[in-house]
What we know:
By secondary structure, the chain is an alpha+beta fold.
Amino acid sequence: MLSIAAVVAVAGILFASTYSQTQMTASRMNLATQDTDLIQKVREMGGLELQMPSAFAQIPLDQVDTMASQGRHVVDVKLTAQSVDLPIMGGGKYHAMTFSGQVPAPTIRVTQGDIIRMTLDVPSTEPTPHGNDMHASQMTAVPSFGAVKPGESKTYAYIAEVPGTFKYHCSGVNVAAMDQHVLSGMYGLTIVDPLNGYNPLLVEKTKVENGQVALDKQRVSADAKEFVLEYNQLYLNADGSYDQTAMFLHNTTQTVVNGFAFGYVPNADINKLVKGDEKQNIFVA
């Protein structure tokens, strides 16, 4: 049996709170405390819906246009939940759940301080509700956004306050079956570029100077060739449907990168992007 503290930590992960949120919440629970005290602490914290209002960047939808007129840049993101059959290595197919018909989902790129206004449409033909949890929002989408039923649409907005690379994914049906939705393909990236750009990279090597080993520090421009690698695992039954038992047993059917097995292996497009010549390979170990 999991202790209450462990349940809190696990709930933090399932509700897609940030690592620091989960860590801070779990650290408040003392494993040596009696169960009755732990339960009371959980109640005082508001149950297992881990929310830290001070960290939320969500803004009311009716304020978006006003903030835009004051100088904020608004990026509208429209995603459609779509179940499709996709090919996998070996000639088979699997029953994928996707955002906008692709795996991974579309990459979202904004600048720190931008407003992201995200709309999720779930067609009436979808067999299940879906959600959208964007880690760049610094909030949990479950109590704030909730599941979108087939035939409905929901929108929420937030300020991308923190630069970095963040996952976004389906939150299932208010967390229920989230593993199936995410591992079946409903995941993508949000890249938040720093407002003032990227700092030069400090490369530190050594050199011999006057018979002594000394540090050789050089700054390298932040300008760089870019490509996105998104990892995921497929856990499938023989008919290509999701196998939760295999997931719990860590029996991976395939490990995929950018939606297909061995997706990190260079191809002509990537070679040309990075090397300028599709015949010059890039090797990854």
